[in-house]
Amino acid sequence: MKTDLTDTTASKINKALVLGRRAIGTPAIGMVLTLVIVTDEENAYDALKAASDAAHEHPSRTLVVIKRVSRSLRDRTQSRLDAEVRLGADAGTGETVVLRLYGDVADHAQSVVLPLLLPDAPVVVWWPVNGPLDPAKDPLGALAQRRVTDTYACEDPIRELTARAAAYTPGDTDLSWTRITPWRSMLAAALDQVDCQVRAVEVEGEEFNPSCELLAMWLADRLGVPVERSRSDGPGLTAVRLDTDCGPIVLGRADGSLATLSIQGQPDRAVALKRRDTAELIAEELRRLDPDDTYASALRHGVERLGAPAKGAAEEGPVAVPAPVETAAKAPAKDAAQEKAPVRKAAAK
Fold first, then answer.
1. For the chain, where do the domains classified as CATH 3.30.360 start and end?
2. Which fold is adopted by the domain 179-306+318-339?
3. Shortest CA distance to 211 belongs to which of 288, 128, 293, 153?
4. For residue range 71-115, what is the model confidence (pLDDT) as tens digits?
5. Residues 194-211: tens digit of each pLDDT
6. What does pTM read for this prediction?
């Protein structure tokens, strides 16, 4: 069921939601959060499709905020809010409201979104492209418990990653970090199988891929050893090589789908390590709504420190990132690596 509202208000949109639920016989219960997507018209379709797929796992009210740039001077000076309300089969397992803001109201999107939030439910704001440099200080980001950006969609991902580190606030996360969850889990599991010390690490991947940098920063932070970044043609991450005192450990993925894990003295094993789509990434982020201290710790290490040996956990990194609660003295390489990537559990409803 779709309802188009032109030159409307938040109050009329709420009424349309209530009338729509009555018409299709669907109560407002069962939705666990409000997902706010801030995007442009060009990327709205793909972002909404990913959110709809993720809603099968996390039923939610999805608010798509599109700030329209008016062509004429008259339209730029006149504020207008158009909305499209989708319920039932047109919205999957939740509710969807597409908001198009014109004129001055585009600068006050939070005043439109606030009355449409589900009461007593978490709020997640996602910028598929062109996220703010400081998401927590953005008017819409200030409404959320979780703020999701994607540095991979930026023109200069590495510079954007540095800016994210400088402005980090608990609750911030990035889909470039989410993309490496399977890699972190697989590497931690590999080190569980051997009793040795890691001496150096090499991370191989595309040159301007922030996921490669984040994985290298995580390994350098957790293991306390030099990590070298090498370039490849991709796709994405292609290999991680661990130099240990009992032989090399290599996790390589040349085709973006199937990886090979090689451990000295053991037969090679094929492991599924496919590149995941955006729907899977956003669904993973919605499973966990508390601050990600591991991400914060990896950000603190900083891109510029890759390749240099760690000088101890007590030394502050070059970026102003608050220390996570669980930060402690560096453990031996194997013990540090045994801390697997955190299992993302569903947030309390």
1. 179-306+318-339
2. Dihydrodipicolinate Reductase; domain 2 (3.30.360)
3. 153
4. 655 555 578 899 999 987 766 678 899 999 998 888 899 999 999
5. 888 999 999 999 888 899
6. 0.81
